[in-house]
Specification:
This protein has helices spanning about 120-130, 130-140, 145-155, 165-170, 175-180, 205-215, 220-225, 230-240, 240-255, 255-275, 290-300, 310-360, 385-395, 440, 450-470, and strands at about 5-10, 15, 20-25, 40-45, 65-70, 75-80, 110-115, 275, 285, 365-370, 375-380, 410-415, 430. The chain is of the alpha+beta class. A five-stranded antiparallel β-sheet has the order 10-11-7-12-13, with helices on one face. Strands 1-2-3 form a three-stranded antiparallel β-sheet, with no helix packed on it. A three-stranded antiparallel β-sheet has the order 4-5-6, with no helix packed on it. α1 (about 120-130) packs across α12. The chain starts with 6 loop residues before the first strand and ends with a helix.
């Protein structure tokens, strides 16, 4: 092909091909040893169990996805195949079980370890907005609980008298009568919603707490509201009309009022300038949010004759423009959050690779298999597990230039393959080391952060299960 001359600007962190084509790589990332410039791509390999899979490299047994950074937010993406579509929940989770740790036929035992930043998008919103409610939760390790308060505020639209305190009381109540007796301010007549899930299946109090605190209400609101400014899905799930949903939205905004002002400011700035700026100085552009774009759009369909027969056409054009503009307002906030996620992931990969090299670890010792959204997946030699966990915990949490006030946390999971652990379906799958099951670690350590001895319990369980399966 033809040769292309490019200009590298390390101060700005750009690769300039022409006046119209400029890629960002970030001055902190470097080029010679680290992730490639944004807009370019590279490959990372995951070894699946089925060695005769036609998609595998016959020499290494790996499937090599192309990892790129060409999304508007510059987050990493995966293609051919898309490893980021490996579902962690649902009917297709078994596919993760096909991906195992490396095997070099050298007699060494290896495991699959993944680490993902806990609630990173919410930590970013809290860091950027300086909202005190977020600071209470994410200002220390381990992180506190952001979801219960949100769930209580939203549910109180229907369940009169419900507060965060009474909602949290569900998790330790053994009966509904006992809970109502303890929290007499809750109106029994309107509390029927708490007694069952959306399918009508009955709940005991702890199950009700877990369900409504999770994705259906509390967690769902926290992860969805900031990109839409509304709680449409929750209102639909609850069967609410517009007024009830609006009341829930207002209560949510009141709880996180400082963060709400930050969200509106990102939209205002983006509408005026067409971009938002990240803490590292990079900008993410959304020109369709500006008045300039709207004028340009409407000029594409000039109509000099404003007779009645054109009113419908004008209405359609304006409605399309309104929806595009409205969507771009939400994308401005998304670009700010996802753009910072992208910077965090790329910097971390670069620092991890440098740290591994400094310790003299080769790819036979530790290898990055693939990044998946806010998660990194590794193949690790068993004898290095403890040292690896300590090192990666520090590197993934140490980003004070991007997160000067709030604490980053990354939760590890370990297994002989990449499937989430299940005693029946996936006994060799990944066990969450910060929420281990009592079947493996016992009642005392269940759902706690494991120390070195606790991790050894998990490792022994996994390799013993492997021996049983092979017997």
């Amino acid at each position: 092909g033809n040769a292309v001359t490019v200009d590298l600007d390390f101060a700005l962190g750009t690769v300039r091909v022409s006046d119209d084509v400029v890629f960002e790589f970030g001055s902190a990332f470097g080029i010679s040893d680290g992730p490639p410039p944004a807009g370019l791509s590279y490959t990372m390999g995951c070894p699946p169990r089925a060695s005769d899979n036609p998609a595998n490299d016959p020499d290494t047994g790996c499937v090599y996805s192309t990892i790129s950074s060409m999304l508007d937010t510059r987050r990493l993406a995966s293609t051919n195949p898309n490893g980021m579509q490996l579902a962690k929940q649902g009917e297709s989770t078994y596919v993760r079980g096909f991906f195992e740790a490396d095997d070099f036929n050298d007699g060494e035992e290896r495991v699959v370890i993944s680490r993902d930043w806990s609630g990173i998008e919410l930590v970013i919103i809290g860091e950027e907005s300086k909202d005190p409610e977020f600071a209470k939760v994410f200002g220390q390790l381990p992180h506190g609980d952001l979801h219960s308060g949100a769930a209580a505020d939203i549910l109180s639209v229907e369940v009169l008298g419900l507060t965060e305190k009474s909602f949290k009381g569900l998790k330790r109540s053994v009966s509904w009568d006992g809970w109502f007796d303890e929290y007499g301010e809750v109106d029994r007549k309107t509390a029927g919603r708490l007694l069952a899930n959306f399918r009508g299946q009955p709940h005991d109090p702890p199950s009700s707490y877990k369900f409504f605190r999770g994705t259906p209400i509390g967690k769902g609101a926290n992860f969805n509201y900031w990109y839409s400014g509304w709680l449409a899905t929750i209102g639909e799930n609850m069967g609410w009309d517009f007024d009830q949903t609006a009341l829930a939205v207002n209560r949510y905004r009141e709880r996180f009022s400082v963060a709400e002002q930050w969200r509106l400011e990102q939209i205002r700035h983006g509408c005026e300038h067409g971009w938002v700026e990240l803490p590292d100085g990079h900008r993410r552009y959304r020109m369709e949010a500006t008045q300039e774009w709207l004028i340009h759009w409407l000029r594409k369909w000039p109509i000099d004759d404003f007779e009645s027969q054109h009113e419908g056409f004008n209405g359609v054009v304006h409605e399309i423009a309104r929806k595009i503009s409205k969507r771009s307002h939400n994308q401005l906030v998304n670009s700010k959050v996802q753009g910072l996620c992208a910077a965090l992931m790329k910097r971390t990969i670069n620092r991890l690779r440098a740290a591994f090299a400094a310790k003299g670890w080769t790819k036979r010792d530790v290898r990055i298999m693939i990044p998946i959204h806010d998660e990194l997946v590794f193949s690790v030699r068993r004898k290095l597990v403890h040292e690896f966990l300590t090192l990666t915990e520090h590197i993934m949490a140490d980003h004070k230039d991007l997160f000067p006030t709030l604490a980053l946390d990354s939760s590890p999971a370990i297994g002989l393959n990449f499937e989430p652990w299940n005693a029946i379906k996936a006994p060799l799958g990944q066990v969450e080391l910060y929420e281990p099951p009592k079947l493996i670690v016992g009642d005392k350590l269940a759902d706690t952060r494991l120390d070195r001895d606790g991790v050894d319990l998990v490792l022994d369980y996994l390799f013993h299960s492997k021996m049983k399966a092979a017997a």
